Amino acid sequence: MKSKIISFLVLSMAFFLVSCEYESPPTQNTPDVETQILDKKPQRGERIIFKDGDLAGNELVFGCCPNAGPSPEYTMTLSGPLPAGTYDGNIFMNFTGSQSPGDYIVQFWWIEEEDTTFIEIRGGEADNDKRNKILTVTFNAAQCEIWINHVFQETVLVDFTLTRAREWLY
Prior knowledge:
With about 170 residues, the protein is of the alpha+beta class. It folds into 2 domains: about 1-35; about 45-170. About 20% of the residues lie in helices and about 55% in strands. It is built from 2 helices and 9 strands. It has helices spanning about 1-20, 30-40, and strands at about 45-50, 55-60, 75-80, 85-95, 105-110, 115-125, 125-130, 135-150, 150-170. An 8-stranded antiparallel barrel has the order 1-2-3-4-5-6-8-9. It starts with a helix and ends with a strand.
């Protein structure tokens, strides 16, 4: 009886060792496994909407605007006192201080031919719905500086509403 038990254990160990030889260790991920895991992981983006005024746009962006950037690509339509048109550029926005009225900044810039046009708007009154993670900032007669090739051009007054809402992309 002892010999049968010993034989069974030896045979079981042999099968176990052979099966381990053809499998990678569980602590190593192969590139295919890593890709599959990353493909299934949801990405958090932000829906950034400009409406009701001189700026218009609606895009889902990723990695937008913690303190010093990055500044994702964004398509914006400008009207009113701004250089009218639809532009493919980059955007940045954030609170500039204590989140009190007038402490929000929006920057947008684009390159046409050899000219870089940059607009910067400061102001706004924020309504931050923390529960639903939706920020709405209303700009009424906010000062917008227009710069071309790092040379100040003029300041104009603009009106618009900015909405930032978190979205998950699966």
